[in-house]
Each structure stands twice: as C-alpha cells, then as structure tokens.
Amino acid sequence: MAVHETRGRHTGFHLPSRHRAGTTRRSGETTTDTTDTADTTATATRARVFAGLRIVIGFVFLWAFLDKTFGWGYATASGKGWADGGSPTKGFLSGIAAGPMESTFHSWAGAGWADWLFMLGLLGVGLALVSGIALRLAAVAGTALMAFMWIAEWPPAKHLSDGTPSMSSNPVVDYHVLYAAVLIALAVASAGTTWGLGRTWARLPVVRDHTWLR
Fold it and tell me: According to the model, what pLDDT value does residue 100 have?
C-alpha cells in the first residue's frame, strides 16, 4: 500500500507539471511571434515615414530649381527666370546685408559660375532625394549649400549693415540647419530603399565599388 500511494503521488505530481510546461512554451512562442510582428511593422512604418520625408524635401529643392529656371511667378517673377536670361543668384546675393562675407557674396552675385553651381546643386539634390539614389552625395552637397545660405543670411546678426533690425528668429538654428540635419538623417537611414531606387542604385558595380556614391 505504501508503494502504491507513493507511485500515485509521483504520477499525480508530474502530469500537471508537464501540462504547465507545455502551456508555458506555447505562450512563449506566441509572445515571441507577436513581438517579431510588432517589430517588423514598426520597421516598415519608420521606412515609409523616412521615404515620405525624403520625397517632400526633394520636392522643395526641385521646386526651387524649376521656379528659378522658368520664372513661374512665385519666388521668381515671370520673365526673369534663368531660361529667360535672368540670374538666379544676383538678386539674393546682392541683397545680403549682414555677416562676415557680405562683400564677398556681393562680388559673386550674378557670376556665371555661381549661377551654375547653385542651380546644379538644387537640381542634383532634388533629383537624388526624389529618386532615392546617391543620398550620401546629396547630403554632402545639400549641407554645403545650406551652410553657404546660412552664412549669407547670417542669423546671429541682430542688426543689418544699415542698422535696421535683422528680425532673426534664432541666432543659430534656422531652416537651413534643419534641412541639413534632415539630409544627413536620410542618408544615414538609407531612406532611398523604400519608395525609391536605392536598392537598384546600390547594386550597380560602380556604386558597389565606391560606397560613398550610395
């Protein structure tokens, strides 16, 4: 009788244990699957957010190029576009009235090389962002362009050279700095692989051999 009771207690102890262990494993597997699905969804959402931001910022650069080229009557008056013989840099650079490079920018205003560099920068960065290719180059070129424009407007100045208030809203961080930061973030995040040609571009032999072209 003693042996029978011991065996019964032994059997009664292990059967529920095996059942609980199986339940724990199934629960753990379900939790892992749910976590993986949530991570995948979050990653895909982030990729789409970066892709949307990339396209929007790219359109900003492309619009500036097109308006300055054809004079669509927004920032550039009709008939004064680059295609009409106007200069996309003369008005802006000649109107600079603050900063350590004021006289230098005045001497550059309307110069052919300045017009070409400025317009090619706008076009190149805009196309790269919209298409999702060469984002590292776009980040470098766009940041350099934004840096020159930041120096030209010189937000740290409280007053212009004629003594009038500059109306600067922030002496350090303005929209040029924000655009540059976004360009760098898009390049770091490889934002051209979603809704763009980033993957196709990266597979090109010349790009594989020179990663700085990505």
Answer: 95
Residues making up the chain, counted from first to last: 214
pLDDT surpassing 50 at residue 6:
no
Residue 154 region by backbone torsions, left for phi larger than 0, else alpha for psi between -120 and 50, else beta: left
- What is the band of 38 on the pLDDT scale with cuts at 50, 70, 90? confident
pLDDT tens readout for residues 137-171:
999 999 999 999 999 999 999 999 999 999 999 99
CA-wise closest residue to 170 among 181, 155, 157: 155
CB 55 within 8 A of CB 126: no
Q: Within the chain, where are the H helices?
A: 2-70, 90-94, 102-108, 112-131, 135-153, 175-188, 198-202, 205-209
Which structure tokens are listed for 155? 């937000």
Q: Is 6 exposed, middle or buried (0-12, 13-18, 19+ CB in 10 A)?
A: exposed
Q: Are 78 and 132 in contact (CB under 8 A)?
A: no
Query: CA 102 to CA 62: how far, in whole Å?
Result: 27
Q: How far apart are CA 84 and CA 90, in angstroms?
A: 14
The proportion of the chain whose per-residue pLDDT surpasses 90, expressed as a percent, equals 80
Helices 112-131 & 2-70 angle (0-180, nearest 10)? 150
Q: What is the mean pLDDT of the chain?
A: 88
191 CB neighbour count, 10 Å cutoff: 27
